[in-house]
Design brief:
Layout (H helix, E strand, L loop, with lengths): L5 E5 L2 E5 L5 E2 L7 E4 L2 E4 L1 E6 L4 E10 L2 E8 L10 E9 L3 E9 L5 E10 L5 H6 L6 E7 L2 E8 L2 E9 L4 E3 L2 E8 L4 E13 L9 H4 L4 H15 L2 E4 L2 H16 L1 E2 L9 E5 L3 E4 L1 H11 L5 H12 L24 H4 L14 H16 L2 H6 L1 H15 L43 E2 H20 L4 H21 L1 E2 L4 E2 L2 E2 L5 E2 L5 H8 L7 H8 L32 H13 L3 H17 L30 H4 L1 H10 L2 E3 L2 E3 L4 E2 L4 E9 L2 E11 L10 H8 L1
Parallel strand pairs: 29-31
Antiparallel strand pairs: 1-2, 2-4, 3-6, 4-5, 6-11, 7-8, 8-9, 9-10, 10-17, 11-16, 12-13, 13-14, 14-17, 15-16, 18-30, 19-20, 20-21, 22-25, 23-24, 25-26, 27-28, 30-31
Helix pairs in contact: 5-6, 5-8, 5-18, 6-8, 8-10, 8-11, 10-11, 11-12, 11-13, 13-15, 15-16, 15-18, 16-18
Length: 697
C-alpha cells in the first residue's frame, strides 16, 4: 500500500520525492523539501549524460534516512546497466545526500553528472490551495555554493547548496565531470542548508552543520535511546510487536521541538499537511502514549500552556484561557493572510488540556508540574463557561469569528459537511457537538480532583463537581434521541437535536458523561452493523443522509477515534465490545504494514479483502500512530490507582499472551501481562460482486 512517493522526516522537516529520489514539484503538489511550513527545494533532479535514471529499489533505512538504488537509462526488455548509482539521503533541519557511482565495466568510463536544483519557497498553504507568490527570487553562486533566495519585505528564506567534490556550479544546479576506473567508484556529498530570516525569527540551520557532524550517527543514537526507554512488548500474535515498534518509531519521527520548548518535543500532527504543533492532536496523542512515552505529555502541557490565549482576537478566534488549534511559521502566517500565529479555532483543546494534565499526574505523580500549571488549568476551566458557552445554555458551542480564513467546524471532525441532521441537512451556527460536552464534564471532574489533591482548594473542587453533575443531568436530557436510543451528534442554535448517529457517542463513554442505564444502548450501536464495519467504527452511521464510506468525516474509519471509543467501552465495563474494536483496528494495522493512516474506507469488511485506502490520508499521522498504544492499554485494562497500576486484561483470543514490560509511572517501572479470552471471530469474506453475479445467472 503505497502512493509511489518516498518520504523521510524529522519533526517538522520532511522530504518527499519519487522512487528515483527526484523532486519535480508543482504549486499544488506536496513534494519537495519542507521545513517550518516552507518548501526549500521544489526541484532536485539527477541525470547522467543527460539521461534520467531508472529505479531498482529503495531501502527504508530510518524515518530520517533512505537509500535509492538506480541505473542510467531504461529498456523495453531489460536494462543493460554498466553503472550503478546509489543516492543516500538524510533529513534533519536540512538535507544531506551522498551520491555514489560504481563502474562495473572492465574499462574506464567518463560521465557527466548533473543535479538540477530550484526552490519556489512555497508556503504549505500555497501548495495546499494552489496560490501564487508575492515576493522576489534570487539566484547566485557564492564561495562554491548555489544560493537560492526569496524575499518579501523583511521576510526571507534561503537555500544554500554545496558539494564535497569539485563541481561546476551555476544558477540552476551542479555539474560534475567524472572519470571512474574499472570496478571503482566515485562519490560526493551534497548539503542543502535552509535558513529562515525575518519577522523576529532566528536564523535556523541544520544541526549537522552547526555541530560539524552528519545526522546519521546522532539521530540513530537518539532513536536507539527513544526505543530503549519505552516499555518492551512481547506478544504471541507476532504482528503486534511490529505494529508497536512502528508506532514508537513514527512517534520519534513526528517529534517537534518549537523554540520555546527548550529542546523538548511534542508530537506534530501528520505528514504532509500538519507537520507542526496542533493543540487537539498533540493532546490526544499524548494521552494515547502516556504509559509508554510520558515525556511527550509533559512537553505538550508546558508548551500549550505558554501559548494559551490571553485576549479576545477575532482574527485568530482567540479568547482568554483558550488552548490553540495550530501554530504555523510560513509566509502567509507572517503576513496575516492566514491566522495561524497561533490560531485558536478549536472548541475541544481547552477542556482536553485539563484532561491531559490530570491523566499525566495520575500516571507520573508529577505534582510539581500540576502546581506550576495551576493558573493555566484554572484559565482553561474558566473558558468553558465564560467563553465556550456562547449561547448561555450551559453547553460549549462554536462559531468562527474569522469568517474568511477561520475554521467552520471547530471540533475534531472539522470538515465543512461533518455535522449534519439525519436527513443530511447542515445546521446553522453556533453548534454544540455532543463530545464537547463530554470533554467539559471530564475536565470539570478532573479539575476537581486536582483542586482537592494538589492545589489545596476544596471549595473550588466542590464547585467544579457540582457544575459537572448539573451538566451531566442536562446533557442526558437534551441530547438523548429517545426513539433511536443514542445521543444526538449536536444541538443547533435553537437547541434542536442534530440527530445523526455518529462515532462521537463513543467519546461520551470515555468522558464519563453517559448515564449508566443508557450505556448498553450506546455500546450496541458502536458494534452494530450501521457503525461497525468489521475493521472499525465509522465516523457516520450507514443510512445517514450524508453517509459516504470514503467521505472524510462522514463514513470513513479513523483509527484514533476507535482507540478512544474502545477505551470508553472499557470504562463502562464493555470488555468484549472494546476487544472487538481493537481486533478490527489491529488487523487493519497489520495490513498497512504496521502504520495506520489518518483514515481509511468505511466499507463493510465482508466486501473488502483489505481495508480501502483513503486517497489523501496523512501518514504517518500522530494520533493514528498513538492508536496501537492506547489499544494495548485498553486490552490490558491498565489504570493507575494511587501509587499502583492495576491490570484487568480482556484480549481477543487471537492475540494470545501479551506482555508489556517496564511500564514507567509513579510506581517506578512495572510489568503487565494478559492472555486472550474474548472470542472475536473475523467475518468470513463474501464472494466478490462479479462472482456473485455470475453464480446467480
Amino acid at each position: 500500500m503505497t502512493d509511489g512517493l518516498i518520504k523521510i522526516l524529522d519533526g517538522n522537516t520532511f522530504a518527499v520525492s519519487d522512487e528515483r529520489g527526484d523532486i519535480e514539484a508543482s504549486l499544488s503538489d506536496p513534494t519537495g523539501l519542507f521545513s517550518y511550513d516552507t518548501r526549500f527545494l521544489s526541484r532536485w533532479v539527477l541525470t547522467i549524460d543527460g539521461q534520467r535514471l531508472n529505479a531498482l529499489s529503495t531501502d527504508d533505512l530510518q524515518y530520517f534516512e533512505t537509500r535509492f538504488f538506480l541505473v542510467p537509462g531504461t529498456g523495453t526488455v531489460y536494462v543493460d546497466a554498466k553503472l550503478s548509482v546509489i543516492r543516500q539521503r538524510a533529513v534533519g533541519d536540512g538535507f544531506h545526500e551522498s551520491l555514489t557511482l560504481i563502474n562495473h565495466e572492465q574499462t574506464p568510463v567518463d560521465v557527466t553528472v548533473r543535479i538540477e536544483a530550484d526552490s519556489d519557497f512555497a508556503d504549505l498553504f500555497e501548495v495546499k490551495d494552489a496560490l501564487k507568490k508575492h515576493g522576489t527570487y534570487t539566484r547566485r553562486v557564492d564561495d562554491g555554493r548555489l544560493i537560492l533566495g526569496y524575499q518579501r519585505g523583511s521576510f526571507k528564506r534561503q537555500t544554500a547548496i554545496s558539494s564535497s567534490e569539485p563541481a561546476q556550479i551555476d544558477e540552476h544546479g551542479l555539474t560534475y565531470t567524472v572519470h571512474i576506473e574499472p570496478h571503482e567508484a566515485w562519490a560526493t556529498d551534497v548539503d542543502v542548508v535552509t535558513a529562515l530570516i525575518g519577522f523576529g525569527e532566528a536564523r535556523i540551520q541544520p544541526k549537522y552543520v552547526e555541530d560539524g557532524s552528519r545526522p546519521r550517527p546522532s539521530m540513530q543514537q537518539d532513536l536507539g535511546r527513544w526505543l530503549d526507554d519505552a516499555p518492551r512488548v512481547v506478544c504471541d500474535w507476532e504482528p503486534l510487536t511490529g505494529i508497536y515498534r512502528r508506532s514508537l518509531v513514527d512517534l520519534a519521527a513526528l517529534r517537534f521541538s518549537p523554540t520555546i520548548a527548550k529542546g523538548q518535543s511534542l508530537p506534530a500532527a501528520g505528514l504532509p499537511w500538519f507537520m507542526t504543533m496542533f493543540g487537539r492532536d498533540s493532546i490526544f496523542t499524548s494521552l494515547q502514549a502516556l504509559p509508554f512515552t510520558p515525556e511527550l505529555a509533559a512537553t505538550t502541557l508546558r508548551v500549550l500552556g505558554q501559548w494559551q490565549g490571553s485576549r479576545v482576537d477575532d482574527f485568530r478566534d482567540e479568547d482568554p484561557g483558550r488552548i490553540l488549534h495550530e501554530m504555523r511559521y510560513g509566509e502567509m502566517t507572517a503576513f496575516e493572510e492566514r491566522p495561524h500565529s497561533p490560531y485558536y479555532g478549536t472548541a475541544d483543546a481547552t477542556p482536553l488540556y485539563v484532561v491531559l494534565l490530570d491523566e499525566y499526574e495520575r500516571w507520573s505523580g508529577d505534582t510539581d508540574l500540576v502546581r506550576a500549571l495551576e493558573p493555566e488549568a484554572r484559565a482553561a476551566l474558566n473558558w468553558i463557561d465564560a467563553y465556550g458557552d456562547r449561547l448561555g445554555n450551559g453547553y460549549i458551542s462554536y462559531e468562527r469569528r474569522n469568517e474568511e480564513t477561520g475554521l467552520e467546524n471547530q471540533c475534531w471532525k472539522d470538515s465543512w459537511d461533518s455535522i449534519s441532521y439525519h436527513n443530511g441537512d447542515l445546521p446553522g451556527f453556533p453548534r454544540a457537538t455532543c463530545e464537547l460536552q463530554g470533554y467539559a464534564y471530564d475536565a470539570k471532574m478532573r479539575g476537581a480532583r486536582l483542586a482537592r489533591a494538589v492545589w489545596n482548594d476544596p471549595e473550588y473542587a466542590d464547585q467544579l463537581e457540582s457544575e459537572a453533575d448539573e451538566l451531566k443531568r442536562r446533557f442526558n436530557r437534551d441530547f438523548w434521541v429517545g426513539d433511536g436510543e443514542y445521543y444526538a451528534l449536536a444541538l443547533d442554535a435553537d437547541g434542536r437535536q442534530v440527530d445523526a448517529l455518529s462515532s462521537n457517542i463513543g467519546h461520551l463513554l470515555w468522558s464519563g458523561i453517559v448515564d449508566e442505564a443508557r450505556a448498553p444502548a450506546i455500546a450496541r450501536h458502536l458494534v452494530g452493523p450501521r457503525l461497525f464495519s468489521g475493521w472499525g467504527v465509522r465516523t457516520l452511521a450507514e443510512g445517514e443522509g450524508r453517509y459516504n464510506p470514503i467521505g472524510y468525516h462522514v463514513g470513513t474509519i479513523w483509527p484514533f477515534d476507535n482507540s478512544f471509543i474502545a477505551w470508553g467501552l472499557r470504562r463502562y465495563g464493555f470488555k468484549d465490545e472494546a476487544a472487538q474494536i481493537a481486533s478490527g483496528i489491529l488487523d487493519a494495522a497489520a495490513i498497512f504494514d504496521g502504520r495506520l493512516p489518518e483514515a481509511f474506507g468505511g466499507y463493510e469488511r465482508s466486501l473488502t479483502k483489505y481495508p480501502v485506502q483513503y486517497p489523501t490520508a496523512c501518514s504517518p499521522q500522530a494520533w493514528s500512530t498513538g492508536t496501537p498504544l492506547l489499544l494495548i492499554r485498553t486490552m490490558l485494562g491498565l489504570e493507575p490507582i494511587g501509587d499502583h497500576l492495576t491490570v484487568d486484561p480482556a484480549l481477543p483470543v487471537g492475540i494470545g499472551r501479551l506482555e508489556v514490560l517496564d511500564i514507567p509511572g509513579r510506581w517506578g517501572r512495572i510489568d503487565a501481562f494478559g492472555r486472550g479470552r474474548v472470542d472475536i471471530k473475523p467475518p468470513q469474506l463474501q464472494p466478490r460482486l462479479e462472482d456473485a453475479a455470475t453464480s446467480s445467472s
